[in-house]
Amino acid sequence: MWNEFKQFAMKGNVIDLAVGVVIGAAFGQIVTSLVEDLIMPLVGLLIGGLDFTEFAVTIGKAEVKYGLFIQNIVNFLIIAFSIFLVIRVINRLKRKEEVKEEAPKVDTKEELLKEIRDLLKEK
């Protein structure tokens, strides 16, 4: 059982996934900072200095922070859109590389043989 687990854990896909998760977490922090520190203050200025995090309602002893919830939804949408754009660029670059790799190499001997064959068919 231990050997099976080692084989599973050492497969390239599992290691690639782990690296992806770590890089994704780091990228998430960068995008979160972009949203919270740059974009949302500018949005707040555009809509009259409004800060969603200040909106809350107190019901009994409970404080319902619906403004913070709205802020988190906006953060999520901006982060998701940013990740979408990065993945879109990566996919385009991969497609360009695949097209370059798929271009068949022309073998001059094969081309000459095809020309000879075609000439013989014509006679």
Automatic annotation (TrEMBL):
It is a multi-pass membrane protein. It is found in: Cell membrane. InterPro entries: Mechanosensitive_channel_CS, MS_channel, MSC/AndL, MscL_channel. This is Large-conductance mechanosensitive channel. Keywords: Cell membrane, Ion channel, Ion transport, Membrane, Transmembrane, Transmembrane helix, Transport. Channel that opens in response to stretch forces in the membrane lipid bilayer. May participate in the regulation of osmotic pressure changes within the cell. Its main location: membrane. Homopentamer. The keyword Ion transport applies. It comes from Robertmurraya siralis. GO terms for molecular function: mechanosensitive monoatomic ion channel activity. The chain crosses the membrane at residues 12-32, 69-90. It comes from the Bacteria. NCBIfam families: mscL (TIGR00220), PRK00567.1-4 (NF001843), PRK13955.1 (NF010560). GO terms for cellular component: plasma membrane. It holds the Pfam family MscL. Belongs to the MscL family.
